[in-house]
Specification:
The protein is an alpha+beta fold and 166 residues long. The protein has 5 helices and 9 strands, in the order αβββαβββββααβα. Strands 1-2-3-9-8-5 form a 6-stranded antiparallel beta sheet. Strands 4-6-7 form a 3-stranded antiparallel beta sheet. It is globular, with a radius of gyration of 15 Å. The relative contact order is 0.21.
Length: 166
């Protein structure tokens, strides 16, 4: 708890909050690494979340690009199972040594599973954003929303343009 409070107060003192930036997951400044992983078979939101749709389940997490810009993740707040998430609405938060950022849901649906490993090991988001660092599994209420998300090539281009603008 003390570490979370220190990280938040330090980020606030240094004015590293991402609320004023175009993307809620990226701090007001960024240093482009240009080597972020973008995986085939996933869909991507312009708010830097990814979705893996498999049958009636969609797994959601934040992208490698987002975790790289956030820095070391020290705390994750996630919703309860059986709660609802709505497209482009906040469902949780990620606290890093740089900033606290809201996580937006790329699709609507019912949360059927939460990655409880992130409570004790939030750094999984940094070390394995697409595997061990997944956040929630959702039963989509409107599968057509998946078609509004970007594919890997579009997301890569989006990130390159966003980084160039900063």
């Amino acid at each position: 708890m003390a570490l979370r409070m220190w990280a938040s107060s330090t980020a606030n003192a240094l004015k590293l909050s991402s609320s004023a930036s175009k993307s809620h997951l990226l701090p007001a400044f960024s240093i482009s690494r240009c080597f972020s992983s973008v995986l085939e078979g996933l869909k991507y939101a312009n708010s830097h979340e990814w979705v893996k749709h498999d049958g009636s389940v969609a797994t959601i997490g934040i992208t490698d690009h987002a975790q790289d810009h956030l820095g070391e993740v020290v705390f994750v707040e996630l919703p309860e199972e059986k709660s609802s998430v709505s497209k482009e609405k906040n469902f949780g938060a990620v606290e890093s040594v740089k900033a606290t950022s809201e996580i937006l849901s790329p699709i609507s649906g019912e949360v059927i599973e939460v990655n409880t490993k992130l409570t004790d090991s939030p750094g999984l988001i940094n070390s394995s954003p697409y595997e061990g660092g997944w956040m929630i599994k959702v039963k989509p209420s409107n599968p057509a929303e998946l078609e509004t998300l970007m594919g890997p090539k579009e997301y890569t281009k989006f990130c390159e343009e966003e980084d160039a603008a900063h």
